[in-house]
Amino acid sequence: MSSALLGALGVGLVWGWLLGMNEGRIFRGWRTVPGLALTSLILAAPIVWFQGILGLAGFGGAAFLAWWLHVEWRQTLRQRFSVTDAHEGERS
Questions:
Q1: Which of 25, 42, 44, 46 has a CA that sits 20 to 30 A from residue 9's CA?
Q2: Going by C-beta distance under 8 Å and a sequence separation of 6 or more, which residues neighbour residue 89?
Q3: What's the pLDDT score for residue 55?
Q4: How far from the centroid of its chain's Cα atoms is residue 22's Cα?
């Protein structure tokens, strides 16, 4: 496994985790979703350039895995601590 492929997997894990942080927080979808999609494409472009389709598949798979784990983790925390409003714990 090349270092470029490992880098693509690492970037995918970080990006997926960051995307998971947006779960339940997208209020202006008409602006937020295209912005996240554009950023994902910008991140994927150098991966395709250096690693090709295998790197892109690794990036996408790692991003999806990290996103899914983050969303599940947040739901588990909400259930464990009985938070009914997704933003209740975030208010100052």
A1: 25
A2: 81, 83
A3: 93
A4: 8
**Closest by CA position to 13, among listed 62, 71, 76:** 62
Amino acid identity for residue 28 in this structure: R
Separation of alpha carbons 19 and 3, rounded Å? 24
State the pLDDT at residue 92. Answer: 46
Query: CB of 67 within 8 A of CB of 20?
Result: yes
First to last CA, the chain: 46
Q: What share of the chain is helix, strand, coil (3-state, %, to 5)?
A: 80, 0, 20
pLDDT per position as a tens digit, 42-72: 999 999 999 999 999 999 999 999 999 999 9
Q: Which residue from 10, 5, 9 is spatially nearest to 51, judged by alpha carbons?
A: 5
- Tokens representing residue 59 in the block: 């990036």
pTM, to two decimals:
0.78
